[in-house]
Amino acid sequence: MSINKAKYDACYFIGDDLPTEFTGRLDSSIIDVFSQGKNIFLVEIQSLFPEIHDFFEQETTELFLVRNDLGSRPLFHWALESEGFNIYSSVPRTNRKLKQMRSEKSYFNSLPDSIKPFYYIFNGLDLTSEYHLHPFQGGFLLSFSNWYDIDILTQYLGHSADIKFLKEEFVNGDIRVIARGGGDEVLLLDLKNGGPLYCAKWGKFMELKQIINPHTYLTEMFFKSIEMLRNG
User: Fold this and answer.
1) Burial zone of 154 (CB within 10 Å; 0-12 exposed, 13-18 middle, 19+ buried)
2) Tens digit of pLDDT per residue, the chain (232 long)?
3) Could you tell me which of 176, 63, 167 has the C-alpha nearest to residue 122?
4) What CA–CA distance (Å, rounded) separates 79 from 89?
């Protein structure tokens, strides 16, 4: 599929000369990752998440770089396009397996081993309908820098009583929202105490359940989120 260049202030592709205001702030390893395209992000999930791997391979564009001139200084994003939504990173990063940013190491180490490969791939990538939106207005996997405290749910979902319940349930924890599914469903991780993962789902009453099979759950959540983004 082709990229809608008109949506962006500027975009750059593999083989292009990248702007100096971008390259001057990055080490060569990040540029090397970009030069290899989106496949560098897909190797780890081929066996664990084959449906998601096939989706990225068949239904997204090649990796490109976006310049956003909305603020006082240009911002750059890694980006992929698919029908009805974007996948982007507000902070370009190298592959997590090659280099971990120091400030995020404890976050990464808190993940259950079964889903660490998943985060190697989507390192820093948020799914959203428009690349300039707040990530929580989009959906699914949130980049490490956007792992919000559960208070964010009060702001975006308006469930203050349920947030109080969660805080009482995990009184000694540091509960973060690491992903959002279709509708009022979020994936929670206790950074302080580690796994397991929990799903919190809102209806008339909040449901809280432990995720037994992260691979199956994350795959279902991924495609629910895509459906939500495409249907507005």
Assistant:
1) middle
2) 677 777 778 888 888 887 776 666 555 666 676 777 777 667 767 887 899 889 988 998 888 888 777 667 777 777 888 887 777 665 444 444 444 444 566 667 777 776 676 665 555 556 665 555 554 554 456 655 567 777 776 666 666 777 788 888 888 888 887 776 666 777 888 877 777 788 888 766 678 888 888 888 888 888 887 887 777 6
3) 63
4) 7
Phi, psi of 87 (to 5 degrees): -120, 125
- In Å, the largest CA–CA distance within the chain is 54
Place of tokens 């080490």: 27
Q: Measuring CA to CA, how many Å separate 15 from each of 31, 32, 65, 169, 181?
A: 11, 11, 11, 51, 35
Domain that holds residue 69: 5-231
| Residues 6+ away with beta carbon under 8 Å from 186 | 153, 177, 179, 180, 199, 200
> What is the number of structural domains in the chain?
1
Alpha helices (runs of H) in the chain, residue ranges in sequence order: 20-23, 28-35, 45-48, 50-59, 105-110, 116-121, 151-157, 160-169, 214-231
